[in-house]
Structures are given as C-alpha cells and as structure tokens.
Amino acid sequence: xxxxxxxxxxxxxxxxxxxxxxxxxxxxxxxxxxxxxxxxxxxxxxxxxxxxxxxxxxxxxxxxxxxxxxxxxxxxxxxxxxxxxxxxxxxxxxxxxxxxxxxxxxxxxxxxxxxxxxxxxxxxxxxxxxxxxxxxxxxxxxxxxxxxxxxxxxxxxxxxxxxxxxxxxxxxxxxxxxxxxxxxxxxxxxxxxxxxxxxxxxxxxxxxxxxxxxxxxxxxxxxxxxxxxxxxxxxxxxxxxxxxxxxxxxxxxxxxxxxxxxxxxxxxxxxxxxxxxxxxxxxxxxxxxxxxxxxxxxxxxxxxxxxxxxxxxxxxxxxxxxxxxxxxxxxxxxxxx
Length: 337
Description:
The protein is 35% helix and 18% strand. By secondary structure, it is an alpha/beta fold. Helix 1 packs antiparallel against helix 2 (23-44), helix 3 packs across helix 9 (310-330) and helix 4 (136-148) packs across helix 6.
C-alpha cells in the first residue's frame, strides 16, 4: 500500500514543490492528476492481499532512488521442469506516457507470462514526467534490467540467460526496447504493445489514421504526455535510445512481435519500423512480426470491454504467450504447468 500512496502523492508533490514546471504544463497536469491516481489505484487494489509476487528494490546507478520491481515466480506442477533447472527471465515495463506509474499496472501481464511460460517475470516502475525528464525513466528501466542480468540475480532467482525476453505497453515498449539495446545479443525476444517508437514528432503532429475520431476530448492533455522528452526533443532528435524507429536492427532483440491497433496515432510509425526491420533482417532466422487489430484503440489489450473487443484482446494475449513460448523453446526451455 505504501507504494501506491507514494506514487499517487507524487503529482501533488510535483505540482506544489517544483516551481520550474511551466504553467502550460502545470494546469494540464493538475487536470490529469485525478485520472492518474484512479488508474494506479484500480491496477493496485486487485493485488493488495495477493501473495502471487514479491517486491524488491533495485539500487540505481544513476543517482535516483531505489527502483521498485515486483517478481512473479512459476509454480511447479508434476510435469513441469525440475525446480533446480535455470528458468527463463521475462522483463516487462508499464506504459503511461512516461509518467510515474506503479509496477502493478503490468501485474496481469506478468502473471500470465509466468503461469504460461514458466519464466521468472519482473514488472518494473520508474521515475516519470514532468518531475523527471529524459533519460530518468530509461535509466531506471535499464538499471533494473541490468540487475536481473547480473550474476547476483542469476543465482538468486535461478535464471537462464539464454532465455531472456522483454515486453512493454505504449511508453513501456519504448523503454523495454531501449534497455535491450544496452544488452545486445542477450535479449532473445520482445513484445511491443501499441509502442511509442518515434518521439521526434509530438503527439499532436502524428498522423491520424482513417476513421480516427475528429474530436479528441483529451487533446488538451497532449502537452503533458509530451513532457518527458518534448522539451529536449531538438537535442535528442537522432538518439536511437529514445527514438527506436531509427535503431539498427542489429541492436534490437532477435525476435519482435508488434501488437498494433489500427485506430491509433502511432499506427504509421510502428508500421514504418516493422517494414524497415523486416527488410534489414530478410534472409535471417529472426522473427519480425506484426499483428494489426482493426478498429481498436491505443492500449486496447488493457481497456474495458465497453471500448474494446474482448475477443481481439484475448487474441493479442494468446499471441504474446505463443511468441514467448516459441522463443524459449528455441533456447531449450519447454514449460508444462
């Protein structure tokens, strides 16, 4: 509960203590704060009495506070691999426009992956905008991933570094793919859900796909969603760590599955990235795949059924599991719960 309270209090602390935030951001951030707190609370409360995961705090190497992660470990059945056998690692990052969230935002995903693949699954939370700008969130995510790839974590959690995969939703896809670039060759597969891959263009300039609503009721919040990297955009316009769309295929995970809703302003940049990566990896044994979901909105796998198609959402989750299982089997791991 302490993690939820501190995360939800952070916007108020930022608003009333950080004088450097421009008024143009400040009033929008204030308007978004109730929704921000509601999202975190709704994601956290189902897990409040759960013993499905353990919480750890990873030291930052960039001068920030310790980084909170939650870790799911597989439950072994009679037909599962021996408990002593090293286990795959899956590392997932929540979304939220690079704003501070809580690791439980990806708890559902983490539990699914752990239960269906036998991987030790980690969900990380990070510092966010507008209090912390680029590269704070990227540094936190990279520090957390680096720890779980270290000899200390390998021994503590009995990990198999031949089977390391990552995932992320929206901004989390950017953060997970970026962290992978710091560990070239070690990350075998990645899942990008509605990934933000091109921050060279602000949200209000991204092309709207056919059929996109002409009226966007949260358009006034777009400057807040851009507050993590927007003010630094000119300085980092050619930075592949921030703009995954320009990252070389050789620095990204071996296999990548893109889950792409067609009713999303990110449609074009994700499509462009997929097409380029397919060309760069043509003739190799790498898998670069994209699944497009007609009529679905940004973040649809996590949206309630009244605004998304439950059948399509479940299809996306199942494709995720199958993709990860295939990657792990290539690395010599076969899981039977």
